[in-house]
Write a structure and sequence with these properties.
single chain, alpha/beta, 8 strands
């Protein structure tokens, strides 16, 4: 997910641990570990690193992790994650302050959630933004880019190659998807 060289990325979202071994055989640079807890996170990240992959975690889904100052330091020092996804601007900014690469997760459900998210990203120090679900992300990317001009990825219900191609055309630098059929498609 190199936002500087215009390369589009497919990021496998691992919802079942048994799918990790397949994802590690692909050319994708990043793996999103969607089903991790404090007991298996270290070994999952180590497995990704041994396969020359970077591990992304949604910190709000890590079972047993307290997102206080200690928990956030553990993500970097003990678990050695490469990037984090979070919807909370305050938590995300704390993680950014210790050197973690960050993705602000924006879930668009209605006009109120759009307005709330628009205000939140103004203060965000995020490296990227993930817009979800896919169809709304496509529709609202231009409006959000005017508020916060950072690279954006698309997530949530990314289930076919048509949506992946639409994401590429509308300016996203990648997609997150748990759809294994999309993990191997050519992205250049």
């Amino acid at each position: 997910m190199n936002e500087k060289n215009n390369e589009f990325s497919i990021i496998p979202s691992i919802r079942m641990i048994k799918d990790l071994s397949y994802a590690l055989t692909l050319k994708n640079e990043y793996i999103l570990l969607s089903e991790a807890h404090i007991g298996n996170l270290k070994s999952l990240v180590d497995t990704c690193h041994k396969a020359n992959k970077k591990a992304i975690v949604n910190v709000e889904l890590i079972g047993g992790l307290n997102l206080d100052k200690t928990g956030i330091h553990l993500l970097k020092k003990l678990y050695q994650v490469d990037m984090v996804i979070c919807s909370s601007t305050a938590k995300l900014n704390m993680m950014k302050s210790i050197g973690l690469k960050t993705i602000q997760r924006i879930t668009l459900m209605d006009s109120k959630s759009f307005d709330t998210s628009s205000k939140a990203i103004v203060d965000s120090k995020c490296d990227l933004i993930e817009l979800r679900p896919g169809v709304y992300g496509i529709k609202y990317i231009d409006r959000l880019k005017k508020i916060k001009n950072v690279p954006m990825i698309l997530g949530g219900f990314v289930e076919d190659e048509l949506l992946v191609n639409e994401a590429r055309k509308t300016g996203f630098i990648g997609v997150t998807t748990s759809c294994k059929d999309l993990w191997h498609i050519k992205t250049k």
